[in-house]
TrEMBL record:
<feature type="transmembrane region" description="Helical">
    <location>
        <begin position="110"/>
        <end position="129"/>
    </location>
</feature>
<feature type="transmembrane region" description="Helical">
    <location>
        <begin position="358"/>
        <end position="378"/>
    </location>
</feature>
<keyword id="KW-0812">Transmembrane</keyword>
<keyword id="KW-0472">Membrane</keyword>
<keyword id="KW-1133">Transmembrane helix</keyword>
<feature type="transmembrane region" description="Helical">
    <location>
        <begin position="166"/>
        <end position="194"/>
    </location>
</feature>
<feature type="transmembrane region" description="Helical">
    <location>
        <begin position="272"/>
        <end position="290"/>
    </location>
</feature>
<feature type="transmembrane region" description="Helical">
    <location>
        <begin position="135"/>
        <end position="154"/>
    </location>
</feature>
<feature type="transmembrane region" description="Helical">
    <location>
        <begin position="248"/>
        <end position="266"/>
    </location>
</feature>
<feature type="transmembrane region" description="Helical">
    <location>
        <begin position="214"/>
        <end position="236"/>
    </location>
</feature>
<feature type="transmembrane region" description="Helical">
    <location>
        <begin position="82"/>
        <end position="103"/>
    </location>
</feature>
<protein>
    <recommendedName>
        <fullName>Glucosyl transferase GtrII</fullName>
    </recommendedName>
</protein>
<feature type="transmembrane region" description="Helical">
    <location>
        <begin position="302"/>
        <end position="327"/>
    </location>
</feature>
<feature type="transmembrane region" description="Helical">
    <location>
        <begin position="333"/>
        <end position="351"/>
    </location>
</feature>
Amino acid sequence: MTSKSNQSYLCGQNFWWFAASFFLLFLASKSLGLTVGYALDDYATMLSEKGQMQDFFISQGRFTFALLQSVLDFSDLKQPQLASIGFFLSAGGFLLISWVTLAKWLEKDILLAIALGALLGAHPFFAEYVSFRQALFGVGVWALLIVGAITLLAQDGPVTIGRLCAASAVAAIASGLNQIAMAFFCIAALGIFLQKNIHLPPLRAALLAVRSTVLAGAIASAFYVALFALTVRMVAVSSDARTSILGVNDISGRFVDIAVLLMGIFGGSHPLVGPVAAICTAAAILVLCVRASTACGQWMQVLSGGIVIALGIALALLPTSISGVWWPVPRTLIAMPVAVALGIAIFSFGASRVQVRVASVALLIAAAIFSGKSGWLLENQQRLNRWDIARAREIVTKISEIRQLDASTPILIHRATWAYEIDQGMGLGDANISAFASGWAVDPLFEEAAGRRLNVKSGVQGDTRCENAPSFPNSGSIREVEGTVHVCL
């Protein structure tokens, strides 16, 4: 596309319907996140000193994020303070990524454009990022960088090696904010290359698009590794297990992990999906896959859609799958809905108008369920923050009643758990879990709750100071031994 065709690309009637449904469901399902308290990372980030976070980000392979943090330090700003801007940057970035990936298949049917826009806007996997305020601005920045990268690929005519390398370089920089950006780049590239080959037989178009996508991903990954290696060479940093690569001996076990995860998501047992949304999505796909004709081309269209979904899901899971640490929390899966939406759009290309309408209604029902699931996650985050803050304040108050308390008083928290007695199933990975159980978040939690400098740490596992002690807030749950206050939860 030239700049002129870029303008027309976003001015079609279906684009505006897609954008309206995306934004409406995004705001309806996730705006609650702007009012909740802090996630684990936010406690530490808000109370960190300038220059403290860069080493941590680089150790995770997020070198661009470290640069962004340096700019914010220079500006006397912290990441959570830009969460509202990040919220809208993310919404706009994901909208454009999704549309550029799907556009050609959504030109003919407004209802399908509305349904897929609603589905992607409402999907709860991204809701976790809204509660992680320290990361949300960075997400918005890398989403816009990926928009820039795929715009280079989407221009009219064949993709030259120069444009491919330029797009890959931008994607590598975006991945320095978060490696999930690479998955978005590859899935969007797959959709773009499919659209460029849309005049070819479906299976051939799919195979050519796969080849081009693999090349784009390989170049972008090479740029990313080179930039990361250069950064580590220039700046001495500590290592982080999450940047390690899966060992050969662990590959078979990782395939089992992936299979269990996918069965949970598509089978409806995942807490953020549920059986109704899974059934509606599956029904939409099955309806679109039915073909009255026995023509080979029709069934090749279905086959190519299946290939695209399989490859797209693989690309969405790749950053998490190859990591030495298996941590498939919802925010690491946010590219998967785009991959599924791309497959659905391809299935619709040869389906009848009635099929598309029936499938669209099923997808709208799924979108409504997903919106509720997003609200469930964010509301639970809000409840958890209230519980953590209230308990931390109560502990500080009770300690102050029995002794003088200041920053020199060591406090050890024992027997902390991830959950409270009610709604113990609200935790998802490191989302919606108590900061009391996180050694690096517990001190910032207490300082945020009390508004004063304190010295709070997690007790060492196996410490017997709280053996047979009653649980807080019962009498005897706070003990002082040799100047150290032990709190037995």
